Amino acid sequence: MLKERPLSPHLQVYRPQMTSMLSILHRATGVFLFLGSPLLVYSLWGIAEGGTHFQQMTDCLSHWFAQLLILGWIYSLFYHFCNGIRHLFWDVGHGYEMKTLYASGNAVLLISIALTAITAYFALQNLGGAA
Amino acid sequence: MSLRSPLSKAQGLGSAKHGFSHWWWQRVTAIALIPLTLWFVYSLVCLLGSDHAQLSQWLAQPINASLVLLFVLTALFHGQTGMQVVIEDYVHSTWLNLTLLLSIKFASVAMAVLAIISVLKVVLGG
Ligand code: HEM
After folding, report:
1. In this structure, is residue B8 part of a structural domain?
2. Across the interface, do B52 and A47 touch by the CB < 8 Å criterion?
């Protein structure tokens, strides 16, 4: 007979914590990055084909919604990049103290936002110069 | 109380089978992606606003072509390995699990081939 067993952890009554949220975000950004990879291959294909295919590709990628997705993709890349390095430190046994865990988590959030802002700044400057 | 066998404890190592190789390659690709990602984003920003001729000329250079392929192929392999873990964690229906895993793998290989052929075409000036 199957009995209803208590399940753990009770996610729905669990108070969200910074550490667990960052962990979920690593997974979410990883999946989002993978789902975005066709766009990357599509651009390479567009460059290789040239002509109308290239035109179509650049038109498609300069749509505001595509631009929004690309910005999200770049942020995801930087977040996943920073938190991935955090993961690699854990893998070799460093950074498990509660204090370090919160400090490195805050650093990941800050640095990923800063890197995205710097990238966006130079991207806009470059586009402004070329137009 | 430990679930490890006495032999495994004595040897002091974990599993050296499939699970380890999966975990290991996920880390190897992650480490390779650290410099590749920085280079890729830097190049992307520099290339913004270029026309088709400039992009082809850039991609035709062997160093750029190699690094682009290294980035795309490593990311695909790393992403595919990671997606497998995510699917195994959440999808418990055997058929849906198998369908998703196969789709991810086939799609990754297809994307890898298209990326390689495209870059080669530009490099060889086709
Ligand atoms: C930029 C450098 C990157 C680093 C340093 C990195 C690092 C990592 C690490 C250490 C893990 C294992 C996390 C764990 O054990 O839970 C991981 C998982 C993953 N990564 Fe990356 N990664 C990078 C780029 C990418 C890219 C470009 C993609 C997409 C194509 C990607 C997709 C994934 C996915 C889907 C997972 C599985 C997530 C999970 O199991 O929760 N990563 N990454």
Report:
1. no
2. yes
